[in-house]
Amino acid sequence: MEAIWCPVAPADMLRSLSPNHKLDRITVPLFVLHSANDTNAPVVEAEQIVASHEARNVLEKFSLFPDEGHGWRKTQIRIRSTAEIIVLVLSQLYLPLIQCRLECFSCRRFQIWKQDG
Known about the structure:
This protein has helices at residues 11-17, 43-55, 75-116; strands spanning 30-35, 59-65. The protein is mainly α. The longest helix has 42 residues, at 75-116.
């Protein structure tokens, strides 16, 4: 007799795969992008992730796309989500670099002033 595939997975397997049971392990800022009409991953799951991270002050941003399903199919949504990702990545990479440069500049300036005085 041939085995028949069953779409119902054991609860313990689903629990082990779900990120909702490991949220406390995430300690870096998180950017959550989600579609309101996603039938594979309901928006309530994204909202649980967001709430968990907000409570621990590690949420960077949450973007909810009201007119999308599972995955980005609309060009406007693809452009918007990509732009948001780029802005976030650049701000995470360049803002610390700019702050470091300003601190180094201020430090050098102070040392020169101190030597002259």
